[in-house]
Design brief:
It is found in: Cytoplasm. By secondary structure, the chain is α+β, with helices and mostly antiparallel strands. It contains 4 helices and 10 strands, in the order βββαββαββαββαβ. 21% of the residues lie in helices and 41% in strands. A 4-stranded antiparallel sheet has the order 4-5-3-6. Strands 8-9-7-10 form a 4-stranded antiparallel sheet, covered by helices on one side. Strands 1-2 form a two-stranded antiparallel sheet. The longest helix has 12 residues.
Length: 207
Amino acid sequence: MANRTRLPGMSECAGVPILRRLPIFKSSAQKEEVTVDHLVVTLVAPDKPGQVERIAQCIAEHGGNWLESRMSRMAGQFAGILKVGVEPEQYDDLIKALNNLSAHGIRMLLAESAVETNDTTQLISMKLVGNDRPGIVRDITRLLAGQGVNVEHLITDVAPAPMSSEVLFHADAVLGVPVGLSLDDLQAGLEALADDLMVELMLRGEE
């Protein structure tokens, strides 16, 4: 008689293999979901080593999870915005601990995150350069708002022009543009703000 290989979970009754049901273990993806609140934090603090570590330590010690952030040093100050996830039962303690960081010169503004709605917009990248002048950001954003365009991300800078003493204004942005709005018309409107203004608009993913 040929030897039979006995598989895990298999037994025999009168020489007939019988499969027994093995225990079923749930994967981590099948575990009960934990409700998490989200907190948006904006901060300003004197620029010095250890500031980010102090904030991160505070969040971790009070059950928070650092999710997203944008931070930068500017004019001797350290500024940023971050999104933190925290379970409801630890929410109040985390807020209190973050506010107590003011003793270290870290000033914070806390807000609950809002529900993001899906709207009929397309994301485009905008690169803009022109001679710097007072009011240029106001003029650009006024035109964008008038066209129903939402500024998703914006980085601006001023720098000397190559081979010239003139100061140039640079802007890199991500815009939420209504689907029905012509990008050619939007570009023409922006460039009409000043003769020297050069604008490049491109759908995200086509860069």
